[in-house]
Design brief:
8 helices; 482 residues; 6 domains; alpha/beta; Trypsin Inhibitor V, Chain A; 3-stranded mixed sheet
Length: 482
């Protein structure tokens, strides 16, 4: 079978078109030099045009992006965005989902569908909790933020018997069952009866928990902002909008800017191998994940894509994903005399990495290769290109000739005596004869017993006719009268 396969390959070589034969070169006369230069320029231009129009785009991860950032990316990569607005818990203009997953290579001018958040659904019915005296202003504000309530107000009433900012009552023009997010809701909370001037403290060495506690005790609102700093540790106070010692009134707000730590400027990983990239990420406190994929356009070991673009400032602990090229060659071993499923598994694994291999198979009987094992393959122990078709021949096992098992009945005394005792051969004895004949014929027999007093001990039938050639793994059913 291997010789036949090689002959077919040689015949295919002889049948190649003229374009696959060895090129012939002729000397060019000097007076034709200018035409060659012009033709070369045209060919280079056409090649450049082909490359520019056939370079695939690696899909970015839009998770957490806003629509304007995604549009900028799409414009720079000649990709069309199809935008669908949806309600979600994410901030307005934030991308909720994308139709093509991160890392997938797509053609320029392809369309990508994205869903963009419009924020909470204003028409959604909200089940109001049981607001009672245990609710404080802070707890109410947390509920408001978690449920996207925008049409709310707080009224204050002086009450010396209640703790500051405890709920006195709430009011909404709608019933509890029909309250929706856009409806108005009004809360009345207590304040101290004595008008107090609040002296702002120096928050420089405060933790956020201390700031929140101070603001809560003084009925002030804290607005947090974040900025990078080379000198102030992460989550420590950089600035406060109202200076220490200034006077505020209840319900006023202060903006506190917290440090995000030292800004880390994202580098271009194109010249960095995986080891260098891993070390850089470790040194800068970046959580790095590395993926690999075959590529026809990017050399092996070169970064194809990084999830955070070059030049972007990020903070310690940021997540970064880099996709590295495996090149355009795959090492293919010989699977001859191995289980075909092993080769299928190999191809599936490589295709998951973008190899785009095609596996085709035919079958043949073989006296030396067991069933479902590879007899031959067109490429083995070599490197193959992305998209290569691998042709294999898979064994059906050896051929065997089905014996005439009914012939075992010849000359046997069968039936029952008048006292109903069996005559001649017993079913057990016939079972042994059939088993021996099947074994010597190199076939697999499944023997079953059938109630039949008249033919007691005889072979009644076999499922495949005697003389038929079958695989040595084919199961033949044989019925013996019992």
């Amino acid at each position: 079978m291997s010789n036949k396969f090689l002959n077919e390959v040689n015949q295919a070589e002889e049948g190649k078109t003229e374009s696959f034969k060895q090129e012939k070169f002729e000397a060019i006369k000097p007076d034709r030099k200018k035409y060659i230069i012009v033709a070369s320029i045209i060919l280079l231009a056409l090649a450049g045009f082909f490359i520019l129009n056939n370079t695939k785009v690696t899909m970015a991860n839009f998770d957490g992006w806003i629509i304007s950032d995604a549009q900028t990316w799409a414009n720079s990569n000649d990709i069309q965005l199809i935008v669908k607005e949806v309600y979600s818990e994410k901030e307005t203009q934030t991308i909720v989902s994308q139709s093509i997953e991160e890392g997938v290579e797509i053609e320029p001018k392809s369309s990508v569908e994205i869903e963009v958040s419009q924020g909470f659904d204003p028409k959604e019915v909200i089940i109001l909790p049981k607001f009672d005296e245990s609710w404080t202003k802070d707890k109410i504000l947390t509920w408001i933020e978690e449920n996207g309530i925008v049409n709310y107000t707080f009224l204050t009433v002086e009450d010396s018997e209640r703790s500051v900012n405890s709920l006195i009552e709430y009011d909404t023009p709608e019933t509890l069952e029909s309250f929706i997010r856009e409806h108005k809701i009004e809360f009345t909370v207590s304040i101290l009866p004595v008008e107090a001037e609040i002296v702002v403290v120096d928050m420089l060495n405060y933790t956020t928990a201390q700031i929140d506690a101070w603001a809560r005790d003084n009925d002030l609102k804290i607005i947090y902002r974040f900025a990078f700093s080379d000198t102030v540790s992460t989550n420590k106070v950089l600035t406060q909008s109202v200076s220490a010692g200034d006077i505020l009134n209840p319900s006023d707000s202060i903006t506190v800017t917290l440090s995000k730590g030292v800004a880390i400027k994202m580098i271009d990983f194109t010249p960095y191998d995986q080891t260098t990239a891993t070390n850089w990420a470790k040194d800068n406190g970046i959580d790095l994940s590395i993926k690999t994929s075959y590529s026809n356009t990017v050399a092996k070991g070169i970064a194809i894509y990084q999830s955070i673009p070059f030049g972007v400032l990020v903070e310690t602990g940021s997540d970064l994903s880099i996709l590295y090229s495996l090149g355009n060659e795959i090492n293919l071993s010989s699977y001859v005399n191995q289980a075909y499923i092993n080769l299928q598994s190999f191809v599936e694994t490589q295709n998951a990495l973008g190899a785009n291999l095609v596996l085709t198979s035919s079958t043949s009987y073989s006296p030396s290769v067991a069933v479902n094992r590879v007899i031959s393959q067109n490429y083995q122990d070599t490197k193959i290109q992305i998209g290569t078709t691998i042709n294999v021949i898979v064994s059906l096992g050896d051929l065997s000739t089905v014996p005439d098992l009914l012939d075992l009945n010849t000359g046997k005394i069968y039936g029952l005596n008048e006292d109903l005792t069996p005559k001649g051969i017993t079913p057990t004895e016939m079972y042994d004869l059939v088993s021996s004949r099947c074994s010597s014929s190199d076939i697999v027999c499944q023997i079953v017993f059938v109630d039949d007093d008249a033919n007691y001990g005889l072979v009644l039938e076999q499922s495949i006719t005697a003389g038929t050639e079958v695989s040595d793994t084919t199961v033949i059913q044989v019925k013996i009268a019992n």
